[in-house]
Amino acid sequence: MPRVPVIGRLSSSDYTALVLGFTFLAFESLLRLVIVLLLPKPVINWFYRRSRALFHHIGGHKREKTEEKKACDRVLSARDFGELCSLYGYTHEEHVVLTKDGYLLGLHRLPSKMGERKANPGTSTGKPVVYLHHGLLMNSEIWVCLTDPKRSLAFALVERGYDVWFGNNRGNKYSKKSIHHSPRSSKFWDFSIDDFAWHDIPDSITYILQVAKAEKLSYIGFSQGTAQAFAALSIHPQLNEKVDVFIALAPAMSPAGLAAPIVDGLMKSSPTLLFLFFGRKSILSSATMWQSIIYPPIFAQVIDRSLVWLFNWHSRNISTHQKIAAYAHLYSFASVKSVVHWFQIMRNGAFQMYDDDVLSPVVRTSVSSYRPARFPTRNIVTPIVLLYGDSDSLVDIDTMLAQLPEHTLARRLRGYEHLDILWGKRVDKDVIPEVLLALDQFTGDQEDILAESGTIVDDDAILNEF
């Protein structure tokens, strides 16, 4: 008899959710097929216009002409990273990294201040280097899709005199190519956080340092971009010598789970159910189609409601126009396997490597016969600064500090949720100054690193430890 991993592990309500989920996905797939293959573009544009008219009619929304609304429209119309940067007078560079296992990763770079253009693109600037890395289901655009350039951490770093680089994970909008496999093949999408840690992060850093002719860089990650750095620094001791400080925004390591109990319980009981739902390629690949036919304010409301349901994030610190602008650039392709990996981490409550033996039963005894390998994060030598929101459901700061080295410093941001740290109304006052303060310390003299270790600094205090 074939082994079925869910038998005996799911309740009747879980099976009901499973059936409903399959029904919804089947309907959505059929609808997507009809829209993509059968409907001509004029019909799709008609649906877009009707959704816009319906939104304004039902909601009674006035067509505003504020400066933020105009900025929102400009960000919405920007097609890629380069166009987003050019909106505010920045000239970007594009680079490609070949990982050791054959993936081609797109890197972006801002080497010059607003209105300036580097005479010799692709060469060293002599400036200190900062590397920014995005989160799950994202790409490098998340750092520059702000309606006000003053609230962009990336632009603030450039104006401060840094050579700023942006990474992209394999499979996303800018890294959807391999010398071995086509993205139409399931083999292309056979990667998890392990692969980001073994290849994407260290190979990108090595390339950047070679081009910049620098010995070290500063790493700033957001969400999964922090998890990838935690993992990479823990398994590559030599990488710690190349990173002078690791600043983790909305850090992710071993989140407790989701706010939606049905989804949380279902996926924790058997993470590989995601393979049954979404296959073994990219997850939520239809998101870009829905973006193209739904009026952006409606799409933003759908995202808002989904974030409340899944994570209990209400995003009150992000303005409506900023949501509309940023959500249009939020989604990018990611593998189903990488999301399965996260549910394995949640299920076991440990920051572990991908469990290939996914059908093995979990033995709930005092001595386990099997445990997936964990990332040895306490071995990280690089200075670590955590900036986390105390209203972020994915961050359990005490649990995280227990898994990190003693020199880790945590900084609380009062009232902040996950995405607020990227796009909140006050990031230029609450987040960016803290990042610049940490960079000032760790890109200079390294002898006075963190006099007091493992401390959570209150929001009203100044980081005198720096």
Automatic annotation (TrEMBL):
Keyword Membrane: yes
Pfam families xref list: Abhydrolase_1
GO annotation, biological process: lipid catabolic process
UniProt topology in membrane: Single-pass membrane protein
One term of GO molecular function: hydrolase activity
Record's subcellular location: Membrane
Domain of life: Eukaryota
Keyword line: Hydrolase, Lipid degradation, Lipid metabolism, Membrane, Transmembrane, Transmembrane helix
AB hydrolase-1 domain segment(s): 128-424
Gene3D superfamilies named in the record: alpha/beta hydrolase
GO cellular component: membrane
TM annotation in the entry: 15-39
Protein name: AB hydrolase-1 domain-containing protein
